[in-house]
Amino acid sequence: MIVADKKPIEEIIDEIKEHERILILGCNECVTVCEAGGKKEVGVLASALRMYFLNEGKEVKVDEKTLERQCDHEYLEEIRSMIDQYDAVVSLACGVGVQFTAEKYHSMPVYPGVNTCFMVVTEERGLWTERCQGCGECILARTGAICPVSRCAKRVLNGPCGGSTDGKCEINKEIDCAWQLIVDRLKALDRLDDYEKISPLKDWSTDRAGGPRKVIREDVQQ
Amino acid sequence: MQLKNKFDAGEFAILAEIEPPKGVDVSPMIANAKRVKGMVDAFIIPEMSNAVMRMSSLGGAMILQAEGLETIMQVNCRDRNRIALQADLLAANGCGVNNVMAVTGEDPGIGDHHKARSVYDLDLLELLQVVGTLQNGKDMAGIELAGAPKFLVGSTVNLGAKGRSPEIEVNEMKKKIEAGAEFFITPPLFDLSVIDPFLKRINTEKIKIIPTVLLLKSLGMARYIAQNLDHVYIPDSLIERLRKTPDKVGECVKISCEMIHTLKNKGFSGVLVSTIGWEHKLPDILEKI
After folding, report:
1. E strands in chain B
2. How far apart are CA B41 and CA B44, in angstroms?
3. CATH number of the domain within which B268 lies
4. B114 in contact with A, Cβ within 8 Å
5. To 5 degrees, how large is the angle CA A209–CA A212–CA A218?
6. Helix or strand or coil: residue B98?
7. Where is B132: in which H helix or E strand?
8. What residue spans of chain A are helical by DSSP H?
């Protein structure tokens, strides 16, 4: 899933302070799981904003709504009949949802309420750790299903580098060396021979070179 | 410092583009540059234009500087992060390169290493500001430098591109000036009327605009550019002129010479002559100016 982190409320206030009718728009997917932009967080942010505007002596309408997703047309259509009541939307979805909402409602200012981070696993409640950068050419088959692109600080594809000590990364002694994890995993799989092979040059054109990416599935489109 | 002196004196500056080699044989590059020594105020050394890998601009500039030729080093945002860009700027100035031109750099997807991962740690405006930061004696981390570089700083302005509003272009140029750019190189121009809407909005006496004059090599090249490059306008009349002439190359050289004369008469600050691989033709053009 995608993890997001709450934006400081001061930053949100600074963006929306000139507006008078604001819709706080949550998303029921990833940002709900990471407790940054679901129904609960929509309520908390809306209350805080109402309190702020009240203290400022400003009459500002702050409403709440949480959609199943903000990255699909069908769910974003649910607010079409009500969107004209507002002069701004604060989206607590990831950056994808913020943009898709803005694309859908072209003349409506849409502000982000969270900082979108990366693709993660939930290790435990309140702890999400990165596992994938969406490079577009998965090499996990070669690396024992541990990703050096997302988990090695240097994205080294033939590791470990010289900064690996006692299985930890030179960046921070609390960070596991991804290549130590890969070696350990290949050992457990009895596939250490794979480690001996030099990884071929990675094709980064599936990453960001070439601009924004798209996936076209004609079989699904039909 | 010939280029800066020319700019300061308000004289028409002649720049020429010299591509470094794709390899280490620098003798043709040096020979081509030396052939027009005295006719060119500074040589622009492209930094892997069109994302085609070759010797770096820094390397090319240092080689020509060692031959007593003034250069303009290009720095682009595509291939280096802020650490490397600052390091190269210091290296360049330390080796006598006093002119720098900041560009964004084309996406690797169009070049010959399309699997490369581009950097773009800094964008063009940020890069221009970084040049200023270094000139003020500090690096981006705020750490004092042991000697600050001093550059004449240039950048690009996308004049005459199809579908670009002159307002946006002027606005972008103003931001670049604010960020430290002192002169601007345009895309190749073959018809000045396309940039009239832009020129009406700026004072060319105050802002140093250096149009690029591109040496066409053939009728085919002219047709290709006219049909495929959105940022370059070639009028039909020019293509017709090339079609009719038996001496295509001679006519191409003549077209470049005429354009340079026009630009000089119009009061531009200078011209960049781009011959993309035909640097041996530079004398033919420059001797007639």
Report:
1. 13-17, 42-45, 71-76, 99-103, 152-156, 183-188, 208-214, 270-274
2. 10
3. 3.20.20.220
4. yes
5. 110
6. coil
7. helix B124-135
8. 9-16, 30-33, 39-55, 73-76, 95-104, 148-151, 178-188, 192-196, 218-221
Q: Show which residues on chain A lie within 8 Å of chain B, measured between beta carbons.
A: 201-205, 207-211
CB < 8 Å to A207, chain B: 117
Write out pLDDT tens, residues A92-145.
999 999 999 999 999 999 999 999 999 999 999 999 999 999 999 999 999 999
What are the residue boundaries of the structural domains of chain A, listed by start? Answer: 2-118, 133-200
Alpha carbon of B48 to those of A5, A218, B18, B276: distances in Å?
39, 37, 11, 12
DSSP string, A70-122: SSSHHHHGGGTTTGGG-SEEEE-S-HHHHHHHHHHSTTS-EEE-EEEEEEEEE
Element (H, E) at B107: none
Query: Is-contact B74 B47, C-beta < 8 A?
Result: yes
Q: How far apart are CA B98 and CA B150, in angstroms?
A: 7
State the residue range of the domain holding B179: 2-286
The pLDDT > 90 percentage for chain A reads 95
Query: What is the average per-residue pLDDT within B192-211?
Result: 87
Nearest CA in chain A to B114: A205
Residues of A with CB below 8 A from B115's CB? Answer: 201-205, 209
Please tell me the distance from the alpha carbon of residue B183 to that of residue B171, in angstroms, as a whole number: 15
Residues of chain B with Cβ-Cβ distance to A211 below 8 Å are 107, 109
Number of independent structural domains in chain B: 1
Q: How far apart are CA B169 and CA B190, in angstroms?
A: 19
Tokens (6 digits) for A2: 């995608």
For B13, the token pair is 């500056």
Which one, of B40, B38, B65, B64, lies nearest residue B210 by Cα?
B40
CATH class of A2-118: alpha beta
